[in-house]
What does this fold into?
Amino acid sequence: MTSEVKKVTYSYNNDVEVDELGKFVTNEFLEYKKLTFTQSDHNFITPNGLYQEQNVSLNSLFGRDRVFDYPQRLFTDIHFENLTHVHVDKDNIWDLNEKQWFCRSQYSIVYSGFKVQTDHVHLVIHDLLLNTDGDPDFNAHDFYNESDIEYYLDSAAFYRENFKT
It folds into this structure.
């Protein structure tokens, strides 16, 4: 079943700093999301896991795209807010024929999304974890602790509740 989504808009969490790399990755991300919404809306915000296991990404810059599954006590809120992260191939390390689910990296975009109308989805970019400072020990997963997830959820709820068309 293809999606009815025809319009995708976005905003950044006010704390997100966006440099030239961030702008480029954001533009690619929006194109990627528009393409994923043309495939299916079964999982709504991300391509479903089985689809990702069987297909290459619709944009080679983005790998595994999944809703957070921890901490367990926040699981209901995570799914309600569609709090998600997608791996980013900033270093061009993935084989272009690798199935999307198996493309992982140390970089990611943390985002959420909600339907404004049946055909309109709004995405909120909560974090661009791209290591623009060149830290050799950088790992986006270090930004997924419980307090980070709580912050992302609060931000997602704020943007969803205050969205103006």
Q: What stands out?
A: The chain has one domain: 7-163. Helices lie at 20-39, 49-54, 75-81, 146-161. The chain is about 30% helix and 20% strand. Residues 7-163 form one domain.
